[in-house]
Write a structure and sequence with these properties.
Elements lengths: L4 H11 L1 E6 L2 E7 L1 H16 L2 H10 L11 H4 L1
Antiparallel strand pairs: 1-2
């Protein structure tokens, strides 16, 4: 990535984000600024919720798929 930063940045702009691998495993994510701004608004909203609101939110999420569910205390 260091040698090809410009190319990586352009891919992040096109795709919203790219995953950086280390030993063929996800190690980091490079976000476009547009994607980062969208996520930061969402994160700030989640940080404003209390524990009951977070539980209600997580319970409302779809149950299908291979989503990893973190305990509530990790989200607070």
């Amino acid at each position: 990535m260091i040698k090809n930063y410009k190319t990586c940045r352009e891919k992040a702009e096109n795709f919203g984000k790219i995953f950086v691998l280390k030993n063929n495993q996800p190690d980091a994510v490079l976000f476009s600024i547009k994607e980062y701004e969208k996520l930061s608004v969402f994160i700030e909203y989640l940080e404003s919720l209390d524990e009951t609101e977070i539980e209600a939110f997580t319970d409302s999420l779809p149950k299908k798929g291979n989503k990893v569910r973190n305990p509530i205390d990790q989200l607070l």
